Amino acid sequence: MTTKDQSGIDLMESGKLHALRQLILGLDQQDQDRLHLLLRDPHAFADEISELLPYAVRRLVEKGEITVDSLMPIIEDSMHKSVQKNPGKLVDILFPVMGPAIRKAVSEDIKRLIASINTSIETGLSFKSLKWRIQALLSKRSYTEILLANTYLYHVSHVFLIHRQSGILLHQEAANDSQQLESNMISAMITAIRDFVSDSFHNREDTSLDTIQVGLMNIFIEQGPHAIIAAIVEGNPPADFRLTMTEAIEAIHFNMAPEIEKFDGDTAIFIHSSKFLRTCLIRERKQRKARPPLAFIGLLILLFILISWVGYGYITNRRQIRALQEQVNNTPGYHLSSVKKKAGKYWFIGLQDPDATPFNEIVASSTIDSNKVKGEFEAYLSLEPEILVRKALNRLQPPPTVFLKTQGTVLEVTGAANQDWVEKLWANIFKITGISELDDSKLRVNHTEEPDLDWIIPEIEQKSFEFDINITEIDSLQFNAFQDLVQAALLLEQYNRTHHTLLRIIVYSYTSHDGNVEANLRVALRRAEHFATLLYQAGLKEELLEAHVKFVEEGQSPSLIRSVQFKVIDKNKE
To answer: Which of 18, 329, 373, 462 is 20 to 30 Å from 555 at the Cα level?
Structure first.
C-alpha cells in the first residue's frame, strides 16, 4: 500500500529526494533551512557576518589590499555621527580619563598660585622687595617682571601659535602671573623678521630663525610645515626646552592638520591647541638659602615691645585711677561725683568735709604719681559716724582712757576720765555739728586716768557674738559691739603696760558634736581666729590673745552653739 501526504506526493519518493539532495549539496535539511533564512532575512545575515568582519578587515590590511589611511575617514565619520547622535556615550567612555586629567590640571594651577602667593609674601616686606620696586621704577618695567626675573632661573611667560603662510596669530597661552602683551603686534613682528631672514639668506638651505633677543627676554621659535610656535622666555631654559616645543608643534600638526592646511581666517577652532601650547609654559625657581628675615623679625619685636609698653602703661594707669577713685569713695567725709581728664591730668570732682582726711594724703598713700592727680572739692558737712567722731576728738581732746563712738547723732563716751575733762565734755558737746545727744552712762569718773579693771574685765567678758551656719566673720550690725570690745581690750593692754601684768584674752568659739564634727571644728576655729586677728589689728599684742574651740555638751544652753565669747585670765597666776 502506498502512503501519500496531503499534496499527493508519495512520502517514500520525498525521502529519496531529500537523500539525493544531501548527497549532491552536502547539506542536511537543517543547514538548508539556515541558508535559506540568511538569503531571505538581511538582519539575520548581518548578525552572522558581524562575527567574521573584523577578521576579514585584518586579513585585508595584512595583505595590503586596504590601508589604515583609507579606513580613517570612514572611522572618523562614523565616530563623528555617533557623537552627534549620542554624546553621552562618549562622555561615559572618557570619564575615567577626563576626571584624573582635570584634577591634575587644577592641582597644578593651585600649586602655581600658592607658589606665586608665597613669593609675594616672602618678598613683600623686605629690603630686597624695596630694591626691586626701585629697579622696576627706574627701568619702566613692571614689578612682576622684576620679581620673576629675580626669583626664577627661567620663566616662560607666553607661547604663541602663528600661521606660517599668513602670519596670523592662531592662539596664545600665558602664565598665570604674566602681564598682558600686544599679541598681534608680536606675531606680526616675528613674521616680518622671519621673512626678512628668509629673503636675505635665500641661498642657504639650512637657514632658519630660531631665537630673537629683545632686552632681557628671548623669543624661541620652532617652525612646522604650516604653523610656528614662538615662546617668550626670561632667563636660560634647559636644553630640552627645544624638544618640548618640537613635540608641541608636531602634536598640533598631527591633531589639527585639516584646520591648519585649510585655514580660512577663523581662529576660534585653534583654542583646542591650548593643551599643547601649555606644555611649553615652564619655569624653575631659584634655590635660595632659607634665611630668616631678621630685620622684619626685629621690627616685629620692637613693635610688640612698644605696644606692650604702651598697653601696660595704659592699663596700669587706669587701674591706679580706679583704685584711687574707690579709695576716695570709701574715705569718710568724701562724696565723689566724677573723674575727668584735662590737660594730661586727672581731676577728682566732688564734695569734701573739712574734717575729712586731706585729699593729698589720700593720693600720697596710693601708688599713682601725685603730679597726675588734682582735686576739686566743695565743702559740705558729713554726718558719717567716723567724721562725727573725728569732730568730737578735735573739739574735746579726750584722754587715752576715753573712747568715743556715735549711734546716729548720739555721741557715746566710754572709759575713764577725771572730773575736769567731764566738765569740758558737757561744756562743748553741743557745739559739735551733727551731735544732738550725749550718752556717758559708761563713763567712769576717776581721780586718776588709770584704767579700772572692775569695769574693763566685765565689759570684755559680757560680749557675745552669735553666727549663722558656716558664717565666720562679723557683719555690720555686730561691728558696733565689736568696737566696744576693742576699746575695753585696749584699756586692758594699757593696764598691762602700767602695772607690768600679763592679763590675756581667751577667745572661745562654741560648737556641737551634731553632724560632721570635723567640719564643725574647722568653722568654729576660723571664727575664733577671726576675732583674734581683728583684736591684733586693733593694737593688742599677739601674745595676749589665744583662740580656742569648745564643744557644747547635752543639757547646756543651745544659744552657745555657733557663738564666740571671751575670758580674761592672768597668765602669771596660772
So the answer is: 462
